[in-house]
Amino acid sequence: MLLENKPLRLLTYFSILLVLLAFLMVIFYAPVELNMGMVQKVFYFHVSAGWLGMLAFLVAAISAIMFLSKNNLLYDHIAASSVEIGLLFTAIATFTGMIWARPIWNTWWTWDPRLTTMTIMAFTYIAYILLRRGIDEPYKKARFGAIYAIIGFISVPITFFSARLMRTIHPIVIGGGSGEMAMTPRMYQTMAASLVAFTLLFVVLLWHRTRLAGAQFLMDQLEAEQTAEEFGEVDNG
Amino acid sequence: MKNWFRTLKALVWKDLLQEWRSKDMLTSMLAFAILSLFIFNYAMELDPRQRAELAAGVIWVVIMFSGTLGLNRSFLAEQEQGSFDALVMAVPDVAVIWLAKQISNYLIMLILIVITLPVYSVLYNQNLFVPQFLIELVLGAWGFSAAGTLISSMTVQTRMRDLLLPVLLFPVLMPVNMAVVKAGQGVLSGAGWETYQVWISILLVYGIIMTTISLLVFDYVIRE
Asked: ipTM of this predicted complex?
């Protein structure tokens, strides 16, 4: 039951195909930006990864609320999986951003609201994972994780708002003039393709990871039962 | 409802009395805070011109770190003596346990602020008793301890306990940190109310949101 899942397998192949297609589009179809040159092409994956980082947080927060109201561990598996994948994509967004920023802004890092918020979001994800690792009991782990996911999800937009406010009061010294980038239709198409491909990839990864979490949970339970049997005490609670 | 407030009062009183008798938390927090002020002097070479601008940031960092130190202990007694269950049975509504703890933590934070500020004033010869500055600290401390009380009620039940609290707390505190420091800088540099009132509003909103969420979800923290 756990091993066979045909739609998921098909979807996996399809998403790999789409990501490859998006990759080819970025390389061959999208035009080279006039001012920034080749390095601007990192933009398509950068934006997609950033979008997924946020989407993952949203998914985690919604599953967290669902878990608290339904008390069904499936939602917890989804939330935990979403956070892990979200952390990966947030890291990708940050590093691709740095690759882009270095030649264009002449710095690896600037205290731009988006950069600050993304990084704080990554730290919230890491904290969430650490919190779960500190708890053994599955339901308690799920409850605490859910609560933290909710406060994290609410505080991140306030962080973004505050960081932006700070910047409107104090002008950005470095990278201030980087704002506008005129996009051609080809650029929009490539952008759309890579967004679609990455979002599908996210769905596939989330599905796989959630199944894995379910399997892991089952495995832990079986192991616990076996240990209990060996020591002569049966505890099904 | 009357019962609710009576329980709240009793629980706050219990925490404060406990703290008053041992003074564990407050003495360590104060020692930590004042030592940090000394360290900052050498770390940042606070010369008079920079000092005025940095004061808001230095004070908030000191208060936040020593506050975290105190928060680590806030649920320790309940956890170690296993009195959570008794508490849950005794109260009309579990949210009151959170609110009581929040209020007692907050009062301890206020004591910390009330003692740290004059010490800073004496050490660095800068008057900090500006009403607006106190207002933003008092609001910031509420947001800080609201998020902190909820998170420490969870971390105390984990394996890593005090190791985990700052890691969980600081990312969600980012807005408070920015707002307190920015508002403080505004006040201390003598700018007008309109330049920093938005930060005060952020502190207010943050405090209200965190309080509401905590009251709503605290039930899930202590449910067995």
From this structure: 0.91
